[in-house]
Amino acid sequence: STLRAEIPVTELLKNDPKNWGRWGADDEVGSLNFLTQAEVLRGVQAVKQGKTFTLQVMMGHPGGDPVWPGRAQPVRVNVMDKGHYLCGKGPVFPGHAEYADDMLIMYLQGSTQYDALGHVWCDDQLYNGYDARTTAGKMTKASVLPIAERGIAGRGILIDIARHRDKQVLDRGETFTHEDLLAAAAKQGVTIEKHDILLIRTGWIGSFYTRDKTEFYQDFIEPGLTYSPELVKWFHEMEIPNLVTDTIANEVTADPVSGVVLPLHNALMRNLGVTFTEIAALDALADDCAADGQWTFLYTAAPLKVAGGTGAPVNPVVIK
Ligand code: UVW
Questions:
Q1: What are the distances in angstroms from CA 63 to CA 205, 212, 280, 314?
Q2: Which molecular-function annotations from GO does this UniProt entry contain (predicted)?
Q3: Which of 113, 162, 290, 318 to pair with 132, CA 20 to 30 A apart?
């Protein structure tokens, strides 16, 4: 099967750089450390028009909610509504105010989300060398909480690979590299700068809502970035703090060459501490950028503060 790795991921990545220890033995936010005050101001300088965009996919979309196979879609449950009052079961307050309540049951990666740096690992070690046993029960190292408490702000840049290839959406398993990102950026008339928050549009998530779901999830292969030592070196040298894509896993799910599944989760997230934002809604932003030619902006995100969480839902806000 295409999902059977022939070599261990650690063997594949053995010569790749790591940022472990770069920000101290206790660091849990990794490459977000690159987003200094000066970088936030560089992001603010990218604001030219005052247009705002939100990047979370809708939860409870009539076309379904895209999730990694095996995870359930978010479920919103009404707990209290007018019906309870009509049945005489609603709480009666002095003055007769009534209210509605509901709750959400979801995987923390079941919508647009930030992954904790310890979300994926290999060789029993998480980002910064933390022992993988610290994930037992709840994450006590490299959970999403330090990322959520820090918040994310900086200059964002959108690279529209689908547009670059004159497509609405990339094909299943279609790959691209950092060289393709650079070529697309050149066509867009922008330059990816050091410390940019990198947003990549493939059209994949936008296509989910109207597609047959069996077809969408077939073999669970997405389009995406592919692993290579050169790509990892580029992310390392560019000091990219945050990778945001409109796919479920931010990379082509299984490396077509080695068969290893999720090598970039290990090469970028675990080894370099690059934070991953997945399942982002980028179509409206991309349409607007294509229309006005402005592909850079202030990107901000505040994932939910989930203690011990392996990830957290988020609704990033972009200001152009
Ligand atoms: C896995 O890597 C399993 O999930 P995600 O795509 O949410 O990071």
A1: 11, 10, 16, 20
A2: arylformamidase activity
A3: 113
